[in-house]
């Protein structure tokens, strides 16, 4: 059986990290011929990762002490979002050659992105700016400082660059710094330089657009990309970015057109698959979105944005095991990330793993005690365990204290009161919830069921007919309407809704059967 290239990449990494490893340990390996490492780096920078992966790995296996080759392999793994592999490779590079400034900078970035933030800041603080004699290294150091939140230090390094660099390659960084420091006027002053750069340099245009995107400035990002694209119509990065931005702006037809063009250029790239996943999700094609995110994850297994979308879209598609697995992977990458804890709690709750959900959500609540999402999800988790109704109520009461307009917390409280037989209080809770959201079909349905129970048929008819108009695919609403119409003597309508109840229920049972 043939082994994959990824297998040999992992094997190489194991060899390189063995204590006391030296070149004779691979004396049986047939050496590869020399390759042009500068050409390899250019290809990586242009995103041609698959094209150079095989020759670079072959060369690194044959020349395991070539620091430059290992540095490029680390860069390749970083671009593939295989962060732990990249980190290990850069550590090995610095064992071989401790003076490589760029490797130190990249190790600092990777360490930060892997969640080891203080260690990353220490690594970057140890770099003497005077040792970064190359302009590219000084720019890379400024970027790494900004990534770790050291905006003033990053600005000092960026402003020390020649003006041609400041208004060229360093322009995206300066935009990010001014946004980060809240210096809007300086951003306005940069606008002419940004427009000129967008027309003349596609890479700078893409990087500035990414900064705008990260800051939530989607319209500005889209305008900039549309300015740049006519000069570089076949630029894969510009097309994918513009597709993503258009998804955020709701221009879904244009987004699909640009992403289709991108896929023709690079058929199997994680970034375009990710963007297509966002598009399918925006169109509520959750299974198609999930398929795209799974393919993107296969190509970039450590990418947290991809994993986050895997969790969210797997939950939307009711593929709960996939959601739980992806959420667990996120926490393996960043064990203390509060958002990832919340995602694990929500995914576990939907999956029915109540103990796992409770553990994750309680940890999340410690980190973010005033987040209404936490008390709501934790309250639902307790409510699913009937012996913990009082704990559930306390969580929903906390939600309503944080936000008295929280309709979902009020609805969930009503459900508990209903289950406990406190019909009067449950009706009051549901009625108040409907005043907060008159389009909440489930609240209307459950309020209608209590009106039926208490003999208020006219009220029941009003809310149940509103509920079925909002959600015609809910079998329970049809069943309740069938009961209601039988009670008030409208047998024809009762039969229609009973038939709809049986049809929808049968379809769902068929879908859920193995």
CATH topology type of the domain at 1-116: Serine Threonine Protein Phosphatase 5, Tetratricopeptide repeat
Count of DSSP E strands? 0
* Helix and strand pattern: HHHHHHHHHHHHHHHHHHHHHHHHHHHHHH
Q: What is the distance, rounded to the nearest whole angstrom, between the alpha carbons of the first and last residues?
A: 33 Å
Structural class: mainly alpha
What spatial form do the alpha-carbon principal axes imply? Answer: elongated
> Mind telling me the CATH superfamily name of the domain at 1-116?
Tetratricopeptide repeat domain
Question: For the residues shown, what is the average pLDDT?
Answer: 89
Low-confidence stretches: 1-32
- CATH C-level class of the domain at 1-116: Mainly Alpha
Strand content: under 5%
Biggest sheet architecture:
none
Rg over CA atoms, rounded to whole Å, is 28 Å
CATH architecture grouping of the domain at 1-116 = Alpha Horseshoe
- Helices, by number, come to 30
Roughly what percent helix? over 70%
Can you tell me about this structure?
The structure is a single chain. The protein is mainly alpha-helical and 514 residues long. It has a domain at 1-116: Alpha Horseshoe (Serine Threonine Protein Phosphatase 5, Tetratricopeptide repeat). It has 30 helices and no strands.
